[in-house]
Amino acid sequence: MTLLLHNLPPITSSASSLHHTTRTTKSDTTVCVVSSSNADKPKIKPKITKIKIKEPDNYHATLKALNSKGRIPRKSLGQHYMLNGEVNEQLVDAANVGDGDVVLEIGPGTGSLTNVLVESGANVLAIEKDPYMAALVNERFSATRRVKVIQEDFTRCHLRSHLSSFLGSDYSEGNSYAKVVANIPFNISTDIVKQLLPMGDIFSEVVLLLQEEAALRMVDPSLRTSEYRPINIFINFYSDPEYKFKVPRANFFPQPKVDAAVVVFRLKQAADYPQVSSTKSFFSMVNSAFNGKRKMLRKTLQHIKPSLEIEEALVNVGLAATSRPEELTLEDFVKLHNLIGDT
User: Fold this and answer.
1) What is the pTM of this model?
2) Three-state secondary structure along 167-193?
3) How much is the average pLDDT of 225-236?
């Protein structure tokens, strides 16, 4: 954006020379300072001066970035670009990103969130499926070595390999943890959560911008409701989730039909996971239990043990023999699995 300085008042007869200096503030705004001295010089009419000011990542900047690559948001990729820089700053603050932190960003888009991460001192590994957006972010941050862009489908990438290379020896020796901060496509949010949460050996926390309905369902599930699902058991097994704040839909381009919200998942270490004989068989049991959601567990789990043994196990963990899956907490499922689950 260009700011024009004009129509400055004429210099009075007491002024002899016009001096101008410039300085740059923390907000990257160049300020022109005009001063005068000596009374013998004639009046000077200042010229129009152009001053460059850093363009914000707003609606116009987003359109400009997309147009530079001849792109429009693709519905198939769930692309909704953030227009509000303050929301990006709140995302970064929610993850407590500081100097030297390594941050994974999924779907950087035009690089608006990437920019805030870099300004916070982070080293960013950005994974972008859209080759045009990957090229755009590469170009935008070509002057810094603190951003690495990988053009790949996140749900199919070899994430541990990429992170091992990016983190270096600190990762291999277990001395460093990365963070995830991302505005992700709503249509793959569950897949991303399932991929990231079991990675407590790499990430300390995962901060995601999600569809608000999904965010509420993931963070505050209520027993005996239709919103209680296997994903709730999964999330609480691997993390401690926290709802942070709502983001109205007007902050996105194109505007989605729903509002969004930010959730912080603080990942658990393996030693802090609920003790089960096998995580694979545990989640297999949980998924089976919810296959017939309104059915009793003695029916949905009878492929694991006979119905009578299921009833007996339920009673042994302090539950009714007629219990249904939506009535069990994570701890209840753990106890049940340790009595009837496959090893």
Assistant:
1) 0.78
2) HCHHHHCCCCCEEEEEECCHHHHHHHH
3) 90
